[in-house]
Every structure is written in structure tokens, then in C-alpha cells.
Amino acid sequence: MTGEKGVKILLADDEPHILQFLELGLAGEGYEVCTAENGREALRKAEEFHPHIVILDIMMPEMNGFDVCRRLKERGENVAVIMLSAKDAVDDRIAGLTLGADDYVVKPFSFEELLARIQARLRNQFPNLLGGVEIGPFRIDERRGEILYRSEALALSPTEYGLLKFLVLNHGIVLSKTKILDSVWGYQFGGEENIVEVYIRSLRDKLGDKEHRLIRTLRGAGYRMDLS
User: Fold this and answer.
1) Its pTM surpasses 0.85
2) Fold (CATH) for 132-225
3) Is beta strand 53-57 parallel, antiparallel or unpaired with respect to 80-85?
4) For the segment 39-74, what is each residue's pLDDT rounded down to a tens digit?
5) How far is the C-alpha of 56 from the C-alpha of 42, rounded, in Å?
């Protein structure tokens, strides 16, 4: 996987070894990288650097990641925020996502996973930077609001379109029903989790995925789109 020319990423973490590791790795992938060691510095550099993606640690001095995320989103700029945390607490994830964070990664994590999540955010929020969104047998056409599978346009409802796009953009990543509901239906959705199963079944029918090789079910974990 390679970075895209012109994509700016701001890293904010108070652990120097993590900051250096990520900076070297992302720069090596072709991204333009800027770093900050505390929350206030992150806000200042975001204003100067205008990043597309901010990778933001939660526990930082001077201003924590939650407050930085809130301030970034209040500015109204199109910026994707990926939160980092040493905790796997549900309350932390809910707090970050409620404040507008676009994704959440728990330490320790693999560099490959972070790259996949960065690419997913770019495809979702900055498709113009990627020169068209073609992933495996899929092509996502945001302007026309359609998804092509093996060069054939799929007849999708708005919700099916949103769900399939989310699955494709996050291919290879296990997605829980809760994560899918939050990202596709929204945090205010008050229905049952089983609605996800209904729409997954519909997508499988339209994709001819009778053996569930494309959209896999992982019992007790969720779903994963496999494109290999």
C-alpha cells in the first residue's frame, strides 16, 4: 500500500517513540507528515498545516485528545480524526465518536492496520485525492451515488449504498454491528441491531454472494468484506 501525493497527516502523541515510529513509517509511504507532542501544539499545527487526517492520542498533556477532537470539528473543516488510545473502554470509544472522531484504534496496533484505516478515511472523505475509488471488483462513484460491481451498476437503496460503501472502504477489517450502526445509520438510531443482518442479506443477494465469501460473518465479532 502506498501513500497518495499531497495527503497531509498530523500526528499527535506524547510518547516520542510512537511519534517517531509513525512519522518515519508514514513518510516512507509517501505522506506529508507533521507532528505534535501535546494537545495545544496539535491544535496550533493543525491551523498552520491544514491536514487531511489527524491521528490523535487521547491521553496528552495540556489538552487531551477529546478536547482537541472537539475543537477541530468545531472549526467546520473537512478533516478526518483517528483517535488512538491505550484503553479498550467502550465509554472512551463512545466519547470520541460522539465528539466527531471518524475512527478509533486501540494500542498496541499494527502499522498495516493503521494504514488501512487511513486509506479508508481518504476514500470516504477525500476521494478526489485518490483519483477515483476503485477497490477490487468495486468502483464507488460518489458523484452519481452508485456502486459498480464487476463493471455493473448495482440497484441499491440509499441505506444499502451507505452500508456497501462502508464495507468496501473498510475491507479486511472486522466491523461489529455496533460500529456499522454508528457509521451507517448514525448515533441517534434507536432500532434493533438485527437491522444490520437484514441489509447484509439483501446485499449478498444483489452481489450473488450465496456462499458468503465476499461478506463474511464472524460469529460474535461482526462482518468483514474480503476482496482477495
Assistant:
1) no
2) Arc Repressor Mutant, subunit A (1.10.10)
3) parallel
4) 999 999 999 999 999 999 998 999 999 999 999 988
5) 9
